[in-house]
Design a protein that fits this description.
The structure is a single chain. By secondary structure, the chain is an alpha+beta fold. It has three domains: 99 residues, no CATH class; 76 residues, Arc Repressor Mutant, subunit A; 58 residues, Orthogonal Bundle (Arc Repressor Mutant, subunit A), CATH 1.10.10. The protein is built from 14 helices and nine strands. The strands form three sheets. Strands 1-3-2 form a three-stranded antiparallel β-sheet. It has a three-stranded antiparallel β-sheet with strand order 4-6-5. A three-stranded antiparallel β-sheet has the order 7-9-8, covered by helices on one side. The radius of gyration is 19 Å and the shape is globular. The two termini are 30 Å apart.
Length: 281
C-alpha cells in the first residue's frame, strides 16, 4: 500500500462531509446508500480509509479512519455494508458491478453512459474484444435473460470454475453483464442478467470519450474538493493520461484550477467550491 499524501485540513473536512465520513451523516439504510451514490457519482463498495475515494463501507462507519477488520463476518459495520450492497443490487436503481481492475463499484445512473463510453464493449466489437468463454456465457444470457451462477456455468459448458469466474469478471468490466440479485439459501448464489436490461437508456446513449473523461473527473472532484497526482486514476480505474485529460477539460471550462502538475482543485465560485481560511488558497 503506497503512503497516503497529506491533504490540507480544509480538503479533509470537505471530504468528511461529502463522503459521509462523519457520525452525523453515516449511512444506515438502503435509501441513504442510494442517495450517497447519487451525490458522489460513483463509489467503491468495501474499501476502507487506506484507499482514497468515496466508499460505502466508510460511509456506513461514518469515520475518516475506518479500517476493515480481519474478521469481517462478526463486524456489524462490514455486515451492514454488505447487506446494503445486496439490497442496492436487488432494487436496481444504481449500477453495480466489478469494473476496471476488478473493483466492485457503484455508479449513479447519470454517469453510466460516461463509464460505458470508456470501458463498455459494443456488440459489434464482442468477437474481437471478448474471450470465447465470455461470449459463451453471454450467448446463454441473451437467450435466458437471467440465471443463477451454477445454472449459467452449466448451460455455457464451462467446466473450470476459475475460468468461469474470470469470464464473468470480463463481462462485468465490459459493462455487458451485472448481478441482479443475491441469495444465501439454500446455497449462496448471484443471479446474473444483461446490463442493458436494467439500464437500457443509459447504455444506449452515445457519449464521446472526451466528454466521458471530463464528467468522470467532475464526479470525483465535486466530492473530493481536490485531486493529487494519480488519485483520480486509482479511484476511477483510468490511466493517468486519461485522468489528466478529464481534469484539464474541467480547467478549460473554469470548473477546476490546476495548482501544480497533476494537482487540481475546485475553482472558486463553483457551486461545490471548498471554503478555506488558509491564507495561500
Amino acid at each position: 500500500m503506497r503512503p497516503r499524501l497529506q491533504l490540507p485540513p480544509a480538503i479533509e473536512e470537505y471530504r468528511d462531509e461529502r463522503w459521509r465520513r462523519e457520525g452525523t451523516r453515516q449511512i444506515e439504510s438502503v435509501y441513504d446508500a442510494e442517495r450517497f451514490i447519487d451525490e458522489v457519482g460513483f463509489a467503491a463498495c468495501m474499501t476502507d480509509s487506506r484507499r482514497s475515494g468515496p466508499s460505502l463501507y466508510v460511509a456506513v462507519c461514518g469515520r475518516r479512519d475506518a479500517v476493515m477488520p480481519r474478521n469481517v463476518q462478526k463486524d456489524p459495520e462490514a455486515s451492514l455494508a454488505w447487506t446494503l450492497k445486496d439490497e442496492i443490487v436487488a432494487r436496481g436503481n444504481v449500477y453495480y458491478a466489478k469494473l476496471a481492475r476488478g473493483k466492485a463499484t457503484f455508479i449513479a445512473p447519470r454517469l453510466v453512459p460516461h463509464f460505458h463510453a470508456v470501458w463498455g464493449v459494443r456488440r459489434s466489437d464482442e468477437p474481437r474484444r471478448l474471450s470465447r468463454t465470455a461470449r459463451a456465457i453471454l450467448h446463454v444470457l441473451r437467450r435466458e435473460w437471467e440465471m443463477a451462477t451454477a445454472d449459467l456455468r452449466e448451460e455455457a459448458g464451462v467446466k473450470s470454475r476459475a475460468t468461469f469466474s474470470r469470464a464473468l469478471d470480463e463481462l462485468q468490466a465490459a459493462m455487458v453483464v451485472v448481478p441482479s440479485a443475491v441469495f444465501y439459501q439454500p446455497t449462496f448464489t448471484y443471479i446474473w442478467t444483461l446490463a442493458v436490461g436494467r439500464f437500457p437508456d443509459a447504455l444506449r446513449r452515445r457519449v464521446d470519450r472526451g466528454t466521458a473523461l471530463r464528467e468522470i473527473a467532475r464526479g470525483f472532484l465535486a466530492g473530493a474538493g481536490m485531486t493529487v497526482p494519480g488519485e483520480l486514476a486509482r479511484v476511477a480505474g483510468l490511466s493517468r493520461p486519461d485522468a489528466g485529460l478529464g481534469n484539464r477539460a474541467l480547467v478549460a471550462e473554469g470548473y477546476a484550477a490546476m495548482l501544480a502538475p497533476g494537482t487540481y482543485r475546485l475553482a472558486a465560485g463553483t457551486p461545490t467550491s471548498v471554503r478555506s481560511s488558509d491564507s495561500h488558497e
